[in-house]
Design goal:
Elements (H helix, E strand, L loop, with lengths): L2 H27 L5 H5 L6 H21 L5 H5 L5 H8 L3 H35 L1 H23 L6 H25 L5 H19 L4
Length: about 210
């Protein structure tokens, strides 16, 4: 993993994830005005920032615990996985920068734009909060599981696969709830929680704490 390649990959993923809502917005509104606000790039209520820290603390507790599930350590740390690559590379200034780029741009920003800023908002508008937020969270979790199945070089035990789907799904639901019910529609608290959560978990892997 090199910083240059991960930076390019992260920017490409961000552009692709943002392009989908951009096309839909322009096609429906016939203008680009207000696009960023529609995605949730605006100030959030103070309460949502407080809840963001609680959610982040929960992730920091749950992440090491979920490594106790049979199959999780082997699957999550396989050579082809992001965790495995970070663990194999070990600590260096470049790897810390790689973790920051992947955590904040490739995953947190890109995924919050697509899933909470775009998908959740439209599903909630169509089906109501509970159904819409549940569907976006389920899609978020299933995609994580599907990617793991695609990239894994070893068989994935059912408990491990279930955890890989349910953990991101639960996090996605909470982030959607914070955005829609506590944050005045802003994705900023969710983005910060997502980025910091990824940062913490990958650094734990880098130093062999997970």
């Amino acid at each position: 993993m090199s910083l240059a390649s991960e930076l390019v990959s992260s920017v490409i993923q961000l552009l692709v994830f943002a392009f989908i809502p951009f096309v839909v917005y322009v096609a429906s509104r016939k203008t680009v005005k207000g696009f960023l606000r529609d995605l949730g790039f605006h100030p959030a209520e103070r309460r949502s920032w407080q809840l963001m820290w609680i959610a982040l603390a929960a992730v920091c507790v749950i992440h090491p615990v979920h490594y106790l599930i049979p199959g999780i350590p082997e699957v999550m740390n396989s050579e082809a996985s992001l965790n495995g690559k970070v663990r194999a590379a070990g600590f260096s200034v470049e790897m810390v920068l790689v973790v920051i780029v992947v955590s904040w741009i490739k995953t947190a920003l890109a995924e919050e734009i697509l899933f909470r800023g775009f998908l959740a908002k439209r599903l909630i508008r169509r089906w109501g909060f509970v159904a819409g937020n549940t569907v976006q969270a389920a899609v978020f979790g299933v995609i994580h599981g599907a990617l793991l199945m695609l990239l894994s070089e070893i068989p994935i035990p059912l408990p491990a696969l279930a955890a890989v789907v349910l953990f991101p799904a639960a996090a996605g639901y909470v982030l959607g709830w914070i955005k829609e019910k506590q944050g005045n529609g802003s994705i900023l608290p969710g983005f910060v929680a997502h980025g910091l959560g990824n940062n913490v978990t990958l650094l734990m892997v880098m130093f062999g704490w997970a």
